[in-house]
């Protein structure tokens, strides 16, 4: 493995074997691609150059990205385009709902670009999307990955009654000013706290391999748990283009297992921690698992009484 130096930091030029991705374009992959194209929708799978796109689309799942594909923020880790966004598409909520129905999803995940150009930053559009999905797909679990909304804007989204609401911390506190655009570590923790006190399952995600230390990851997990977060994802940062910040280190699978064990010990209800894990990776599986655990707990409690 070749190493080189840049800006006084050491970077790795070749990915290790555990980051190899299997390309498997199945009939389901083509079906999902067709629906997304037909309804002129965007997915973070494509815009974010997710390494799991083939796997997820082949399983018939996708993470829809609403409010366009141009973001008003320019985070150094993200491949999504930055600039002046187009006006909102008022028909988008119904198109997403129709796509969820056509794909027969039991669990859908919605994320968005940041829309700081809008007075409400797109909060009402989020709510309308949830309402549209729920109306057409009443039994579908709705998971959201939202920007750092707080107070009134967060209330607008939460009042639409999604099942899971996530907001990503993305990285440790020290690196946040260098990695994220405008967003702050403190505000993100407050967003997670406000979601959690509403009683809705709360989720966050972080990337590693950006130059953080193990102690900093541990502290971030502590902070997220203390904010009331129930679920966490931990994945390897992969540089999506030459324009993005470079990978500092490839974290071993063994270290990911170590982080997972620590997070579970902290009391997180579910932890996904592995090199290729992303925010919505296998979301349908872990929600079903949590629901099954909750039912089992209730049944045991009833039997004891």
């Amino acid at each position: 493995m070749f190493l080189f130096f840049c800006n006084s930091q050491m970077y790795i030029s070749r990915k290790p074997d555990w980051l190899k991705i299997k390309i498997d374009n199945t009939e389901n992959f083509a079906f999902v691609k067709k629906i997304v194209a037909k309804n002129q929708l965007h997915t973070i799978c494509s815009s974010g150059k997710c390494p799991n796109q083939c796997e997820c689309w082949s399983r018939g799942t996708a993470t829809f990205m609403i409010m366009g594909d141009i973001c008003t923020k320019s985070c150094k880790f993200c491949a999504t385009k930055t600039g002046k966004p187009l006006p909102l598409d008022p028909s988008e909520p119904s198109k997403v709902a129709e796509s969820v129905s056509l794909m027969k999803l039991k669990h859908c995940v919605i994320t968005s670009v940041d829309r700081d150009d809008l007075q409400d930053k797109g909060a009402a559009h989020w709510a309308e999307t949830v309402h549209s999905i729920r109306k057409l797909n009443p039994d579908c679990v709705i998971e959201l990955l939202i920007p750092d909304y707080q107070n009134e804007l967060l209330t607008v989204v939460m009042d639409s009654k999604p099942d899971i609401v996530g907001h990503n911390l993305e990285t440790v506190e020290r690196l946040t000013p260098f990695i994220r655009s405008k967003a702050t570590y403190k505000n993100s923790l407050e967003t997670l706290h406000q979601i959690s006190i509403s009683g809705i399952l709360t989720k966050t995600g972080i990337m590693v391999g950006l130059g953080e230390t193990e102690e900093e990851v541990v502290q971030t997990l502590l902070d997220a748990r203390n904010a009331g977060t129930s679920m966490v994802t931990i994945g390897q940062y992969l540089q999506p283009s030459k324009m993005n910040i470079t990978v500092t280190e490839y974290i071993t699978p063994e270290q990911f297992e170590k982080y997972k064990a620590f997070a579970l010990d902290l009391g997180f209800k579910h932890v996904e921690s592995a090199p290729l894990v992303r925010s919505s990776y296998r979301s349908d599986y872990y929600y079903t698992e949590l629901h099954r655990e909750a039912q089992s707990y209730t049944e045991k409690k009833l039997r004891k009484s």
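Residues 1-12, 44-48, 294-301 have pLDDT under 50 and may be disordered. The first strand starts at residue 3 and ends at 6.
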